[in-house]
From TrEMBL, chain A:
It is a multi-pass membrane protein. The chain crosses the membrane at residues 6-26, 33-53, 59-77, 84-102, 122-140, 170-190, 196-213. It comes from the Bacteria. This is Branched-chain amino acid ABC transporter permease. It is found in: Cell membrane. It holds the Pfam family BPD_transp_2. Keywords: Cell membrane, Membrane, Transmembrane, Transmembrane helix.
Automatic annotation (TrEMBL), chain B:
Gene3D superfamilies: P-loop containing nucleotide triphosphate hydrolases. Keywords: ATP-binding, Nucleotide-binding, Transport. GO terms for molecular function: ATP binding. The keyword Nucleotide-binding applies. It holds the Pfam family ABC_tran. The lineage of its organism: Bacteria, Pseudomonadati, Pseudomonadota, Alphaproteobacteria, Hyphomicrobiales. Residues 5-246 form the ABC transporter domain. SUPFAM superfamilies: P-loop containing nucleoside triphosphate hydrolases (SSF52540). This is ATP-binding cassette domain-containing protein.
């Protein structure tokens, strides 16, 4: 496999895990715009343990993931008291605090970043992404998953049905934090270098977009969203120059065409994001869509209409 | 008959606004009881007090003699109090079957159940069987937001029923239903009552109240004005006054509301 594709697969795997980390709280109705904070904790945890103590990779990533999960559990109690846009701001502020602390800490290299000695090949993040995907699918198929989705729809009624809504939300937030931390640890070891600038606010926004545009009702959503938005800029990398020379030749411009500016890829990404919000406001993959497929299958299986 | 649920001198104020004033009544075990009154009389507030959405400002609410005001709302369904809502409050993104399985939570909430898959579980089988029994097995996998109003109303009742409650509280189950659907609903509720579930029903459709309920409590402006057999309710002068005003109360009127 070429280095290019190994790199793409690594990024894709990390983004999928990261997206599931944000999906879990979002599926219970809690928007989490602090993704970069959890990812940074996981990444720096792993990087620090690897650089300072030379611990083996499973340990560094595992500990980083655990710290991110525990952080999520602890801050969930105050954070989940806020609602709607205030929760979004509070989680965003959390990520900024994490960023600020790391930037001002000599132990973690400050603005210089940390280099990570142990390297992992692309197949480690890919394997992890497969395991995490299966884990989230399993979780969503249990009663725990059912109560998560119920809390998303109507907290009052979910409570009256006998569900401890708060513990469900705290658990989802903490498990989500751990998954985002896992994505961070894998990132640190895949790229051998962490700097706090790569865990900025844009990262939190993008991962939340993957989840919201992919769909928050089923575990297929973040998988589709993360894959679509990770692969799209790569696809545009080859499509755009072809498009530009096509337009130039139509307009009758002679000679060699300079490659379009890289930022055009993000213009198209933005336009597609808006189009998705207009045409698929509940996300790319919805419950009804899955149900349509499943319904036809089960009907066909039964043979006769009920 | 012993009282399954009893309210003693219950009051509820929202700030300076007295919504319920000194209301007492018993719901006998096995009764089919109606809670009626003009709009704004406090019927839904009584439901919210019993199910724990609100705390009473004064008075006692007892289930089988046990004071329940201090018990968190989420634990009351486990004690045997289940309800439906005035405006359907099913989970719109869940399927019919999943909504019903949510109603099992009070019986299935331990960690082992929470973390095992629902597919092929006994809970799923039970929900499927109940839906079939109630004649609602056409689209178990359909997301509820897409279903007709009358069907959703019934599913909400089934969701409450699957908790195996002692007291089933229904808030305007016939609102928005046509005559056929209402007659259908009445049979459905009689079928439920026949299994020994006590019904407490808020309803404006007096023909349904007359045919379904044996007992009625009438509220007006948060106070109880009648407590007795349904057959007598429309002859009571206080009830007539509440619905029709003083001028008409003296006349012999047989068709109220």
């Amino acid at each position: 496999m070429s280095g290019y594709w190994a790199g793409i697969l690594t990024i894709l795997a990390i983004n999928i895990i990261f997206a599931y980390g944000i999906f879990l709280p979002v599926a219970t109705g809690q928007l989490n715009l602090g993704g970069a904070g959890f990812q940074a904790i996981g990444a720096y945890g792993a990087a620090f343990l690897s650089a300072s103590f030379g611990l083996p990779v499973p340990v560094t990533i595992g500990v980083g993931m655990a710290i991110a999960g525990i952080t999520g559990f602890v801050i969930a109690f105050p954070l989940l008291r806020t609602r709607g846009v205030y929760l979004v701001l509070a989680t965003f502020a959390f990520a900024e605090v994490v960023g600020g602390l790391i930037l001002n800490s000599d132990t973690f290299g400050g603005a210089m970043g940390l280099s990570v000695p142990a390297f992992i090949d692309w197949h480690v993040p890919v394997t992890a992404a497969v395991v995490v995907t299966l884990f989230v699918f399993y979780l969503m198929s249990t009663r725990f998953g059912l109560t998560m989705r119920a809390a998303h729809d109507d907290e009052v009624v979910t409570d009256l049905m006998g569900v401890n809504v708060r513990s469900i939300q705290v658990a989802a937030f903490a498990i989500g934090g751990a998954l985002a931390g896992l994505a961070g640890g894998l990132y640190a070891h895949s790229f051998n270098f962490v700097e706090i600038q790569s865990f900025n606010a844009l990262v939190s926004i993008y991962v939340l977009l993957y989840v919201l545009l992919g769909g928050t009702q089923t575990a297929w959503g973040p998988l589709a969203g993360a894959t679509f938005f990770t692969m799209l800029p790569e696809a545009l990398r080859t499509v755009l120059p072809a498009l530009k020379s096509g337009i130039y030749s139509l307009a009758g411009v002679e000679g060699a065409v300079p490659a379009p500016d890289d930022s055009w890829r993000f213009v198209i990404l933005g336009a597609l994001t808006i189009a998705m919000m207009v045409f698929r406001p509940e996300g790319l993959i919805t419950r009804t869509m899955i149900e349509r497929f499943g319904f036809h299958r089960s009907r066909a299986g039964k043979g006769a209409p009920a | 008959m012993t009282a399954l649920m009893s309210l003693t001198n219950v009051s509820k104020n929202f700030g300076g606004l007295a919504v319920i004033t000194d209301v007492s009544f018993d719901v006998p075990a096995g009764a089919r009881m109606a809670l009626i009154g003009p709009n704004g009389a406090g019927k839904t507030t009584i439901f919210n007090l019993i199910s724990g959405v609100y705390q009473p400002s004064a008075g006692e609410i007892r289930l089988e003699g046990q004071e329940i005001s201090a018990i968190p709302s989420r634990e009351r369904i486990g004690l045997g109090i289940a309800r439906s809502f005035q405006n359907i409050r099913l989970m719109p993104h869940l399927s019919v079957l999943e909504n019903v399985m949510l109603g099992q939570q009070a019986r299935a909430g331990n960690l082992g159940n929470m973390l095992s898959p629902l597919r092929r579980s006994r809970w799923r089988r039970e929900a499927e069987e109940l839906l079939e029994q109630m004649g609602l097995d056409t689209y178990p996998g359909e997301v509820v937001a897409t279903l007709p109003y009358g069907i959703r109303k019934k599913i909400e009742v089934v969701r409450a029923l699957v908790a195996k409650p002692k007291l089933l509280m229904l808030d305007e189950p016939a609102a928005g239903l046509n005559n056929t659907e209402t007659a259908n609903l009445k049979d459905f509720l009689m079928q439920i009552a026949a299994t020994g579930v006590t019904l407490l029903v808020v309803e404006h459709d007096m023909s349904l109240v007359r045919s379904l309920c044996d007992h009625a409590v009438v509220l007006n402006f948060g106070e109880k004005i009648y407590d007795g057999p349904t057959a007598e309710v429309q002859k009571d002068p206080d009830v007539l006054e509440a619905y029709l005003g003083t001028r008409h109360a003296g006349k012999e009127t047989t068709d109220v509301a």
